[in-house]
Write a structure and sequence with these properties.
Helices cover 36% and strands 33% of the residues. By secondary structure, it is α+β, with helices and mostly antiparallel strands. It has one domain: TATA-Binding Protein (2-Layer Sandwich). The chain has a 6-stranded antiparallel sheet, covered by helices on one side. Helix 1 (7-20) crosses helix 2. The longest helix is centred in the last third of the chain and has 17 residues, at 68-84.
Length: 85
């Protein structure tokens, strides 16, 4: 699965959410996805109601989700934001 995730796409989506999204205490929210980073900006986070993801140095990332369908739906949201925003 790790090779299926495009790191450049994740960063594009993060940038689009932080640019186009509404800012709140949790981060920036756009199309149902929240984006934020740690204090130094080296790790970025994307999450929705069911899935959370962290992306950091050396193209390392980690997803946390309860079901595979939640994960697939989350990836669909990310791809939608990447293509249509």
């Amino acid at each position: 699965m790790k090779n299926d995730i495009d790191a450049k796409m994740l960063l594009r989506v993060y940038e689009k959410i932080t640019t186009l999204g509404n800012k709140s205490s949790q981060g920036h929210s756009f199309e149902g996805v929240i984006a934020f980073s740690d204090f130094d900006g080296y790790t970025v986070y994307l999450k929705d109601a069911k899935v959370s993801m962290s992306y950091g140095f050396h193209n390392t990332y980690h997803f946390d989700y309860a079901s595979n369908s939640d994960f697939v739906d989350f990836l669909k949201k990310l791809h939608y934001i990447d293509r249509n925003s």
